[in-house]
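Morning - adenine inputs below, output right after.
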Amino acid sequence: MRIDILTLFPEMFEGPLTQSIMKRAVDKGLVEMHFHDIRDYTLDKHKKVDDYAFGGGAGMVMTIQPIADLIDKLKAERDYDQVIYMTPDGQRFEQRIANTLSLCGNIMILCGHYKGVDQRIRDHYVTMEISIGDYVLTGGELAAAVVSDAIIRLIPGVMSDETSALTDSFQDGLLSPPVYTRPADYNGWKVPDVLLSGNQAMIDEWREQQAYERTKQIRPDLLED
Ligand code: ADE
């Protein structure tokens, strides 16, 4: 899989997507990440990439030309399954969308800044608009990193234990049950007996019950769907 990220701040990705499991996925050749600085494509002699909004109002709008030229260049090189725009007014990101996107070959993720991009970029290039939640970030970069992480870890071979992604919270519509590791007794804080019983059927039933109880308490909305 190849992910192209279009941004005014490529250096914002130096941390989150270059560590741990994400780094391993890249090193193993399971995913290619490419970061493109939108400013490199502006034809403006002052390197401007934004302008005042028609109709007035506070905040700058990212101009069409550098984004359009960059997207056209990338599209001429290969086909893309999706051109995603990160924006708080997009559809809410959830595990179901991560699952679908993890099956793509090539995706582009466009990060907005300031008041966002000129609507005509959204109308003519963008195929999917994603929000990571009902709050406003300073730009789409952190949101793009979140979406990329959620997608990449689902690519077969990325996680060392292939089954672990399947037992994540949300994969079966429930939150995850609690987990414990050694020691079985930490200064009197004990692990539930059932987990030490060796009876896998009982353990599975306990986990299911715990997942259901947790979901009912913390996210009852998940049980309504
Ligand atoms: N850009 C700014 N806020 C955002 C959000 N909540 N989700 C996606 N992109 C954003």
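Note: Strands lie at 2-7, 32-37, 50-52, 60-62, 82-92, 106-111, 128-131, 185-186, 189-190.

O.
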